[in-house]
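Checklist before submission:
- one chain only
- standard amino acids only
- sequence pasted in full

Submission:
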Amino acid sequence: MNMASILHCDLDAFFAAVEQLDDPTLLGRPVIVGGLGNRGVVAAASYEARTYGVYSAVPMARARRACPHGVFLSPRFDRYGEMSREVMAILRSVTPLVEPLSIDEAFLDVAGVRRHHGPGPEVAALIRGRVRAETGLTVSVGAATTKFLAKLASDLSKPDGLLVVEPGAESAFLAPLPVTRLWGVGPATFTKLDRMGVATIGDVARLPVDALTAALGPSLGAHLHALAHNDDPRAVVPEHETKSIGAEETFGTDLATRAACDRELVRLAERVAIRLRRAQVVARTLTLKVRFGDFETRTRARTLTDPTDVGPVVLGTARELLEGFDVTRGIRLLGVSASQLLDPPPTQGVLVLDADPEGDHVDRIAAVERAADAVRERFGDSFVRPAALLDRRRGDAT
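Returned file contents:
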């Protein structure tokens, strides 16, 4: 590829920006979105909050100490999803080759739209203008010849910027950057490279690949050597298949009884089942994630004979998986996820009136849940809830 036609678009401080957009009184103020309990973490921070050292994944307790005058808000994921869909629609109106990475970022391949919209940098400017005009949000864009370089360029252009790495300028652009900018360089790898006197991407590029593979292993060594030379052949893949659907929660106080855990499983299983039905898929494998108070994290999974999107089936499986854990150790986090996602069979959810016990019982429950889904669609998710959750105080959802 000889053009800067790969774009990486990344919405700036997305969750916080949506909150500021919806409430103009928050403009210019440090806005911090995340779990508000003692054990919550920051999901997004406005650039005003970042000047105080508050970033995503920072513990909320630390954020409150660093920025006590900040505006702390619980996430509104439905609203963020709505705004994300608007932005993705703009991107897809420019080119069909859009690969979403998350709710707020995507890769684009715009080589095929040059005749209509111009070269990559012009397309990037067009997208930035349209996103701002049509949604009120700002998006930073990197344009380059590879995915790796486009993502790196968008990171360096933030906030509200456009950075183009022209063909032929890649090595000069990469050389002075710290080695931690390479995908795959975490603390352990950085320590090994530092001992070798490797501090920049240029240093990596100058090393023989054999020296890197000897120090880091054949896979990682070859990977870093390739990236340091901007060797990234990955194409933009427009259809990104969902691999799993899940829900988890960190608790302000460790759960230490099976009854307390069960109450949480009811809510998590309901959320997972609703998300499966909204995605119009059924799951063959269900996984329970448990994090104890000492941060040890363990998972157990079960593959079902009949794939499901039915809440009580998800809940029953999660309950059985929980039996393998000692809850008296204190549980800090619970999560339920569904994987091996399939299209539902044609008969899924049909109300069966005859009294054959097991299968018909599940079908009847499925029909009731779909009726409840219709009510939620009209009046909101909080309108229909399991009775076991009616008195529950809200915690820190993720």
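Reviewer check: The first helix runs from residue 14 to 22.
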